[in-house]
Amino acid sequence: MYKKWESLMIVIKRASFLVTVLNNLTTSAYNEVIKPEALANIATTLHTTSDYLLGIERDEFDPPRIRRMIARNASSLTEADKREIINALFGEE
After folding, report:
1. What is residue 91's DSSP assignment?
2. CA 84 to CA 93: how far, in whole Å?
3. Residue range 38-69, pLDDT digits in tens
């Protein structure tokens, strides 16, 4: 049991470090250091968007972004999660 927690803490620390590094890079540095495919993979792994990692994500309602987030995470959604999304879109208030 302890080994699982230790492994989880290592993953969390690595992800935290990666986010810190990414937040300190400028957009031009991203273009020089990180290839777009790598950035997309990092965003997918962290369950976010490349826009968020680059610091250019807008807070306003953005349907294309929402569609991308749902599509990116569809395989990890349970049937109950999917029903909740459908109900939120088509259900009555």
Report:
1. S
2. 13
3. 878 888 888 777 777 777 766 666 788 788 88
- Per the CB < 8 A criterion, the answer to whether 54 and 68 are in contact is no
| Structure-block tokens of residue 82 | 């999917």
| Tokens standing for residue 90 | 């088509």
Q: What is the pTM of this model?
A: 0.37
Q: DSSP per residue over 14-83, as a string?
A: HHHHHHHHHHHS-HHHHHHHS-HHHHHHHHHHTTS-HHHHHT---SS--HHHHHHHHHHHGGG--HHHHH
Q: What percent of the chain has pLDDT over 70?
A: 65
Alpha carbons within 13 A on the beta-carbon side of 92: 0
